[in-house]
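for the writeup, i need someone to sanity check this before i put it in the appendix. the sequnce is what the collaborator sent (i think, or maybe the updated version? ugh). structure was predicted straight from it, no edits. if anything looks off just tell me and ill rerun, i have time this weekend
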Amino acid sequence: MYRCGECDLVYLFPIMTEEQEQAFYSSQFERYMEGRAGAGWQSPEAHFRAYQEEGERRLPLVRSYLQPEDSVLEIGSSTGFFLDDLRGYVREVTGVEPSEEYRRFAMARGIETVASLEELAARRFDGIFLYYVVEHLRDPVRHLARLRDF
């Protein structure tokens, strides 16, 4: 384990290369989590059902910050369980999810979901949510600062 001298983040070393990271999240993440976390990861549908309560738990924590005309983004949106709850309170929801399987599932439910933040470079959002994401970022301070552009 190493501690970053600039931001104090503690992380494992070596860090995956960007290519390794992209390959892992696009095609191996679900299987990894299935082995680690169990049945909730067996399929996108099972995951969505298993985490619906989590989405419902988050909603009261953020509702007072939302306006009906808002456009919101969730990074690491998984199967879209939180965005599914949010879309009843805002104009537009969008997710960023590197897992192709989860991204397709969310899109089939009518939730716009892209693979990377770069695909949204021209867009602006009124609110951005990240749950259980920062620990996956190779340079969290830079990444969070970059979100100001959105």
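Helices lie at 18-27, 29-37, 44-62, 81-86, 100-108, 140-146. The domain at 2-149 is CATH 3.40.50.150 (Rossmann fold).
thx in advance!!
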